Inverse folding.
């Protein structure tokens, strides 16, 4: 399926256009509020993405901000309508109440992303998890999640995974694993981790996914950040958002400098990581060590020509299967 536009993506395009036009005119949020006869808090919330803006409010605002190109106005008005839609599966009440605002936005941005960069030093990213791995991870939140919470979140991960993997225009995906992830027996279950790692290798044969391992002995600064994702969105220039997650909180960040700081860190570690073939070999070794009695399926990564790959523009041989 071709990915649809998401309400979160539409809202972001509107608020960035409004903010950039205001700043280009040298106006404060207070001046805009006074001119539009709104409260300043309304302008602040529109620009931060806390609230949507109706097409009827948007048209006079665009005129005031000197955005008068018909095609641009029509596109932004269309985005304003799309941003107010609540018809997606993640907006169902039984799911919505179990997700943070940031995680709901992340799911929506995945619908539109053209590239995704994952860095993790603990848990495999949600859309790439197997069912057993997801169940084990959620089961570790003892005392924090009820059985119903776990059930709904598992269902959410299934739908999120199906949505992403079902895209015909699957985003180019770069997965950077700290070496510690390969040794971590999730929930004390070595076979679950082994199956998960094998699944990553298999996915890399079927989709445009590149996997690298950052070894303990890498000649690079020690990662001082927790897991994060950078999602490149349609549009010009550095149109990207950052998702950061900890054990107790998560957030979406689209501050350009912050996103770029994380991208630079990712690129540094990606270059210092083992190349594609060496990473695949190390993952395969970990699978065998974690589950020596198992009979893993066909190796997930074929030999690839060339190792001169960067996360911003891989130049490599095509896979034998896509």
């Amino acid at each position: 399926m071709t990915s649809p536009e998401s309400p979160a993506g539409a809202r972001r395009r509107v608020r960035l256009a409004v903010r950039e036009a205001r700043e280009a005119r040298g106006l404060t949020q207070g001046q805009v509020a006074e001119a539009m006869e709104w409260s300043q808090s309304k302008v602040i919330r529109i620009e931060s993405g806390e609230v949507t803006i109706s097409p009827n409010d948007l048209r006079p605002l665009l005129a005031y901000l000197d955005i008068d190109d018909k095609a641009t106005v029509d596109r932004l008005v269309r985005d304003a309508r799309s941003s107010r839609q609540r018809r997606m599966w993640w907006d169902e009440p039984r799911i919505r109440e179990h997700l943070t605002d940031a995680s709901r936005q992340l799911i929506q941005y995945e619908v539109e992303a053209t590239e995704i960069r994952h860095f993790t030093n603990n848990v495999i990213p949600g859309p790439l998890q197997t069912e057993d791995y997801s169940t084990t991870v959620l089961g570790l939140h003892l005392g924090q999640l009820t059985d119903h919470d776990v059930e709904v979140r598992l269902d959410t991960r299934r739908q999120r995974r199906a949505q992403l993997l079902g895209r015909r225009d699957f985003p180019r995906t770069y997965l950077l694993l700290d070496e510690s992830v390969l040794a971590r027996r999730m929930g004390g279950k070595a076979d679950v981790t082994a199956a998960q790692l094998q699944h990553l290798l298999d996915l890399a044969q079927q989709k445009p996914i590149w996997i690298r391992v950052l070894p303990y002995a890498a000649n690079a600064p020690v990662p001082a950040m927790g897991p994060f994702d950078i999602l490149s969105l349609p549009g010009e220039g550095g149109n990207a958002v950052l998702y950061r997650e900890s054990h107790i909180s998560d957030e979406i960040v689209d501050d350009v400098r912050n996103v770029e700081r994380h991208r630079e860190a990712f690129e540094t570690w990606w270059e210092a990581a083992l190349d594609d073939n060496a990473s695949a070999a190390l993952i395969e070794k970990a699978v065998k060590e974690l589950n020596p009695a198992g009979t893993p399926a066909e190796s997930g990564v074929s030999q690839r020509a060339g190792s001169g790959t960067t996360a911003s523009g891989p130049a490599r041989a095509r896979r034998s299967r896509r």
Notes: The longest helix spans residues 147-165. The longest strand covers residues 172-178.
